[in-house]
Amino acid sequence: MENRNFCLDDIASYEDIPQYLNRLIQINPHLSLEFLNLTKLVVGYAGPFKEGDKKIGVGTENKQEKQNAQVLVGNTKIQFFQVNPLHCDQQQELIWKNININSFEQIKNWSILELKNYLLAETEINIKKIMDGLNSDVIASVVKIMTNSELINVGQKIFNPLDGSNIGAKGYLSARVQPNSPTDSPEDIRWQVFNAWSFGVGDLMLGNNPVSSLPNSVLNLEITLKELIEIFNLSEVLPWCVLAHVDIQAQLEKDNPKSTALWFQSIAGTISANEVFDISIEKMIQYAQSRNELFGMYFETGQGADFTNSQDHGVDMGTLESRKYGLAKVLQMHMPKNASGKIPWMPVNDVAGFIGPEVFRTKEQLVRVALEDTVMGKLHGLTIGLDICSTFHMSVNPQDISWAIDQIMPVNPAFIMALPTSQDPMLSYLSTGIHHHLHIREKFGFKINEAMMTFFQEINIYDANGLPTAHFGDPTWVYVKFQQKKGDTRNWKIIYEEGTKLFNEAVKRGIILVRTPGNWSSKIPEEISNYINNLYKNAKISLQAELGTTFTDQIPNKINVRSQSKNRDDYILHPSTGEELAVESILKMTEIKKLNDKELTNLQIIISDGLNANALADEGHAVPCIQKLRNYFEKDCTEFKLATNEIIVNNGRVRTGYQIGKLLFANKVGTEIKSIIHIIGERPGTEHNNFSIYITSAFEHEWASVDCIDHDITSVISGISNTAITPELAVEQAIDLLLNKIAILRNK
């Protein structure tokens, strides 16, 4: 829509979207074919500016155009959005099919502005009478024409607590403890849980992001979290969740009954984007129907996921985010009540800010997105929480996160994240720490779920009056109680001494923990705050780093190519430029293909700097990894013919590897299986300087297909460094994954 021959500055105050567009079509009949696209543009323009919407072509920084778009959207009837969805697919049809027709009939002739005024003026009881009649596009549209203060007004009225709890109720703010480890270490995970509980934080769930998605590794993490909960007799109070793909969790539960609690899955706003996540509507409904326990499913969303996977279909990010909530609502409707007659828990987490500056860039935008998404989630009837977060390549620093929290909390989301500090030791991003929860309780008076408060009193973190004790802020004390619950009869002081030693060992491994016994302050110690700030500064340096000759000269058979990114800033701000090779590099691929075809190559190693070239260049990191891979495939494995040369990509992203694979292996009638191993620098922000290995295998005719090669068929090993998952172990895992992929493809 960049070259449209009209400007959104000539509207009449009474016009709605169809009236305005039909007037334009009368003047320019050829625009009749663009009616839907122009509708997408008007709706997109109505929302606050975000870089992702501009990239799609439906975002504007022009204030007059934005005001005019808001007038048009505000004047448009609810029924218009029911009859004219911005994008039609199976997901949209499912959402539309499951709205309450009786409720819809009552409000279908309201304008979006009338809906907004109703939401601002009416009580929760009356709002909930019409909520089921609103489809996701309507909810997204009404949110677009609200100010931040109006969003807070609505958010303060609507609450959808998890059945049988106060999680998501008015005046409550819960916490998802996120005990991530760069090595999937059970010890590191336990200590982060002890850390959170010592401050009275962690009443929604224990949710770990695994480094390895191998089933045995995921099962080990499930058991680790389950043990913590069962030892403390919290099985009816607190679920656990390992955020692996839902297929893996379902298989683990089948093979190891009761090994899982909440089932996680990221969900998108379109069918095609969900296919990238390797899920379908049918699959998700089947899983939802099987969840008849106390704890059901857990979904994560975030504006921009569809756009960054090139599956937005020209629809703005806010509308597609709303459709994710629409899908979650339908899946909740398919979950049967459990034996107690209650609806299984289904929290939804909006991970606002995790993708990067291509979606939005400023702290003000972070606040706006969090407010929008919280209200959209609540209007869908969901228990909606937030990960108020930022990647290190955004223009948001640790202090900005604290500022944003104060702006967002009045909308009263159901929960936010809880890390020992604001920095995740594995995912390398900024989020909300334990100290933020203490600050929020002090400033806003929010409470936690009573069942967990009872537990915190039982382990003497709080006293009978709800006041912190001398053990408050002491994770070693929680370790003592854990050991005693396990039957340890030693004197508590001996256990405490042992715990102190283990605590210090975890810190030495790079797990940032906070220990301030008896200190009720919401401020973390200055030395830890300085440490986080230094990580942030070092991340900025790593983001600008490039692969120098000191590294590349150690790769004797290298071929250097580059992406379309002009420089590091272009690479960071415009990720799509890093996903495609420059023209001259594509020409190089032609010569490489000739050599590979001659040598019957079926495996190619690719090396990209990614977001952290330093992670590859560190001594003992990528070079020995490459050497071990080459030694194995050249000497120990006869079924692979490894390419003679490694391809090094300057300013390369994961999808650059897919393009290289297509250029080298595509054959429309080919039936051989060919693979790439892509070694790439990870997001900076930890002391580990980690890199990743991505493994993609497919038949030649699939490499030739437009749609077959993407993240859904790719496996990844993350967190590789001398101090995390070692290169030696990573190579072993990569080989196992590759061999397993080949076996699966051969059995198709």
Main traits of this protein?
single chain; 748 residues; alpha/beta; six-stranded mixed sheet; four-stranded parallel sheet; 33 helices; 16 strands; 47% helix
Give an overview in words:
- The chain is of the alpha/beta class.
- The protein is 47% helix and 10% strand.
- The protein has a six-stranded mixed β-sheet, sandwiched between helices. It has a four-stranded parallel β-sheet with strand order 3-2-1-9. A four-stranded parallel β-sheet has the order 4-5-6-7.
- The chain is globular and about 75 Å long.
The tally of helices reads 33
Model regions low in confidence, pLDDT < 50 over at least 5 residues: none
What is the 3D shape? globular
Quote the distance from N terminus to C terminus: 43 Å
Cα Rg:
26 Å
**Going across the major beta sheet, what is the strand order?**
11-13-12-14-15-16
Number of strands: 16
Which range best describes the helical content: under 10%, 10-25%, 25-40%, 40-55%, 55-70% or over 70%?
40-55%
Beta strand %: 5-15%
Global mean pLDDT: 96
* Secondary-structure content class: alpha/beta
Largest sheet: 6 strands, mixed
